[in-house]
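Usage example:
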Amino acid sequence: MQDIIERLDAELRTVPAAGFEIEQAVRTGRTAVRRRRVALGGAGLAAVLAVGGLAWAVGPGSGPDGGPDGGTDRTPVAGSPTPTPAPAPEPWEKAELIRVDAEGTITLNPAAAVLEQTRVTDPEGTVHRAFELRLDGQDYYAVADDAGYASQPLPAQGLTLREWAQQLLTLGTSESGSSDEAWVRINERSRVRPEPGVEIVASRPDPGLGDRFAPAGQPTAVAEVVRDGVTWFLAVRRLPGGATEAIPYRKDATVPTLSAFVAYARTQYAPNESGGSEGLR
Amino acid sequence: MRRSQEAAYVEFATSRRDQLRRIAYGMCGDWHQADDLTQVALVRLYVAWPRVTRRGTEDAYVRRILLNAAIDASRRAVRRELPTDSLPERAAPAGASVEERTTLVAALQVLPAQQRATVLLRHWLGLSVSETAAELGIAEGTVKSHTSRGLSALREALAAADA
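Running the assembly step on the lines above writes:
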């Protein structure tokens, strides 16, 4: 451990001269603030906007997703009326779902179909926009705010959009079953035992999910369990030190059986183009 | 933004710039892109400065923006330039020597982006598991597993480099 920390420290200690000055960030920031004020003023008109085939109303609570959380969302949306013509946008890259520019403006890829959208409030009271999008035949969940966005290709552990967004924003402490408290325990022989309130319907030791899931020799398993009347599949591994991590996936039409879950998990942990893997979450 | 707020922003940004550039470099392995990512993060921080300072979360906020941008860029494997009001007065820095670049930072680039961010936050910046989870928006268990697997991969890379 210490060797890695020291080498990282040594490699990152020497910093070449910066390629920009803070004053540049200040100037760009001032421009962004001015534009944002104009955009928010336009948003106050609650004008219905059309953005590349997408349309929704801007303004507190006026959107199609304007539920109970809607009253505090002041995030400007691309396309808000401004007194100056906008520059031509850069072409969208492949798999680029959302842009959040320096002004905090959220723009959806015009080629993406919005299957669902909602708003989710994090524990600090900040309202985030959450979307289910379809782009090039792939469905995604995404959550965005003025600091950026996060997304995940579906299926996302079988969670609904709201559950997924809440899990992301509340660090997995929701009641959707994706908390850090494992529902089962795994022993050194890869056998799983249920925690109270959990029924194991079926399990398979060492299902071969690949070394991106767990190094060779580390106990792993998959299990189908029922908790509070809901069926889940679990990818289970024993962490260094003996703790159990069980990643849940709620049974759905995409992954209806334990065998289908094993196949899906193997795909998720297969090496990708960058040498990493997508993982289950 | 009031003059005093802007002065506080400039002081903060100046004091954090190189640290943010280090994090960005650790995430992308390229000083040019690290400068772009850092500038994006600092501009967004400027916009949000009054709100963020009320909460006292400046460091976490700007790191979160930086990491989101780096993870997004890594996922798409596309480099985009940041439009600015003026051209830079000099070329972007060439960076460290080849020998220095071909070890851990290079090995980091092979890790999945979120694993890379976890290793940097936990073991280089020294954040706790819960702090790392909060900054990356992931569960604490995920931080632990990312850390474990990330360190294993780095150790393998170190062993190969030292062989």
